[in-house]
TrEMBL record:
Residues spanning the membrane: 20-41
An example Gene Ontology biological process: methylation
Transmembrane helix listed as a keyword: yes
Originating species: Varunaivibrio sulfuroxidans
Domain of life: Bacteria
Protein name per Swiss-Prot or TrEMBL: SpoU rRNA methylase family protein
Biological classification of the source: Bacteria, Pseudomonadati, Pseudomonadota, Alphaproteobacteria, Rhodospirillales
Length: 197
């Protein structure tokens, strides 16, 4: 699967939920996990995070939204049960995305919502547990962007093999040759030891 994703939560306060989100993110191959203004007991998180995700996946604990920094080109996607949010089954996941959930008994802050490029929702009749919502979104991303054999029309497993990946032809960079031969010039390149022999 190309691209990357991260997942985190804003103002989350239950250590078991944080641990479950981080463990699931680790299992689905998240590039990093984060919290924004999180208030939970970190030692208790280990009870749910039995994979020690915070020890294997970069973890960022942003004290507030002003300090939250995402990689360049990363799209922030809010997960919130609102009327105007896009239903998850109809959403096209960005290649580079950071998903953020609200707290257990609340919603994303208006400031966080304003910062999100997209707001998505899981089409349920009422709110579900925050760690379960995170798992559903990560699963949907995997199904949408991963390579799997097509689903059959009848119940059961796939009846067709996964199609072979088709590689493009070779790319020959003939016009780049003069640039490979020329020595670099400019400030910092005046050192004679850098000259090609």
């Amino acid at each position: 699967m190309r691209g990357y994703f991260a997942i985190g939560a804003e103002r989350i306060n239950k250590a078991m939920n944080v641990g479950a989100i981080f463990r699931t993110a680790h299992a689905f191959g998240a590039s990093f996990v984060f919290t924004v203004a999180g208030d939970y007991a970190r030692p208790r998180m280990k009870r749910a995070d039995t994979s020690d995700a915070a020890g294997h996946v970069p973890y960022y604990a942003f004290p507030d939204l002003d300090h939250m920094i995402l990689p360049a080109g990363c799209t922030l996607v809010g997960i919130e049960l609102t009327d105007d949010a896009v239903d998850l089954p109809s959403f096209t996941h960005p290649g580079r995305a950071a998903y953020v959930l609200g707290p257990e008994r609340g919603s994303l802050s208006p400031e966080m919502t304003a910062r999100c490029a997209h707001i998505i929702k899981i089409p349920t009749r009422f709110c579900i547990n925050v760690s379960l919502a995170a798992a559903i979104v990560m699963y949907d991303r995997t199904i949408a962007l991963g390579r799997f054999a097509p689903r059959p029309m009848r119940p059961g497993g796939p009846t067709e093999d996964l199609p072979e990946h088709v590689h493009g032809g070779p790319i020959f960079r003939t016009r780049a040759e003069p640039f490979r031969e020329a020595a670099p010039t400019g400030p910092g390149f005046d050192d004679p030891s850098l000259e090609k022999t």
